[in-house]
Amino acid sequence: MSNRPLFITLEGIDGCGKSTQADRLEKALIERSWHVTHTFEPGGTALGKRLREILMRDGLLFSAFSEVLLFAADRRQDIDEVIGPALARGTIVVAERFADSSVAYQGVAGGVGEERVRSLMNLVTEGLTPDLTLLLDIDPDVSLARKPHLDRIEQRGSYLRDVRAAYLRIAADEPERWVVIDAARPASEVFEDVLSAVTRRLY
Ligand SMILES: Nc1ncnc2c1ncn2[C@@H]1O[C@H](COP(=O)(O)OP(=O)(O)OP(=O)(O)O)[C@@H](O)[C@H]1O
Ligand SMILES: [Mg+2]
User: Fold this and answer.
1) Is residue 192 part of a domain?
2) Mean pLDDT of the chain, nearest integer
3) Domain presence at residue 108
4) CATH number for position 90
5) With 70 as the cut, is the pLDDT of residue 3 above it?
6) Which long-range contacts does 72-77 make (Cβ < 8 Å, 24+ apart)?
7) Is 189 in the pocket of ligand 1 (CB under 6 A)?
8) How many angstroms separate the alpha carbon of residue 193 from the centre of ligand 2?
């Protein structure tokens, strides 16, 4: 294991259960006496909350690339304000979404270009890469049915099929970092797999 504490990210399409599983993971790790910082994007900081409002609102026009840049600004603020200091203190970080979201959503599914988004993300994160990324994999019809209100991005239904496929391919390309978990099951069953993947890296 590396010298620094674990940086864990949860990825997956809208409504797959990232927030549900991150909450459970945070609690379980605290019960096991680990120090944990839980963050999410867009919106883990004060700037992020404002950016989230802009990004999720209907009716605003963005080009695909400007959307990438707004997410990038949010991510950098989260690194500077939350993730970086937490890792420096020796705290485990559980983040809902990180650079892989931009690669899957805007880079691949949104057509901005995978390599363009990857190189921008390398600049934004200065190479900070999660130690473990959990992909909560689910069919979009199942995940969207869980959510009463759909935001601007979620309304692009078929888009999420492309995002799901992008995630699965990205995960397969880097199997040492990613663990793919079937997220269509009850939350407690999904969590068993989440906790066992994390535990394997911690002890
Ligand atoms: N395994 C599950 N089975 C059924 N419902 C679930 C499951 N996990 C989460 N839910 C419910 O589905 C909805 C979406 O879950 P959650 O908010 O955790 O997803 P998310 O990935 O964080 O979504 P978003 O991308 O919008 O942040 C919530 O109402 C949640 O209670
Ligand atoms: Mg969420």
Assistant:
1) yes
2) 93
3) yes
4) 3.40.50.300
5) no
6) 72/102, 72/120, 72/121, 72/124, 73/47, 74/41, 74/42, 74/43, 74/44, 74/45, 74/47, 74/48, 75/41, 75/99, 75/102, 75/121, 75/124, 75/125, 76/124, 76/125, 77/45, 77/47, 77/48
7) no
8) 19
Residue 15 beta carbon below 6 angstroms from any ligand 1 atom:
yes
pLDDT tens digits, 158-169 = 899 999 999 999
Domains in the chain, number: 1
Question: Has residue 1 been placed in a domain?
Answer: no
Matching residue, tokens 């944990």:
36
**In a mutational test of the pocket of ligand 1, which residue from 146, 152, 190 has the highest number of ligand atoms less than 8 Å from its CB?**
146
Measuring from atom 16 of ligand 1, which residue has the nearest CA? Answer: 17
Domain coverage including residue 196: 7-202
What are the pLDDT digits (tens) for 180-202? 999 999 999 999 999 999 999 99
2 part of a folded domain: no
Residue 1 has pLDDT above 60, yes or no: no
Which protein residues have their CB within 5 A of the ion that is ligand 2?
18-19
Q: Is the CB of 32 under 6 A from ligand 1?
A: no
- The preferred substitution site among 19, 25, 141, 185 for testing ligand 1, maximizing ligand atoms within 8 Å of CB, is 19
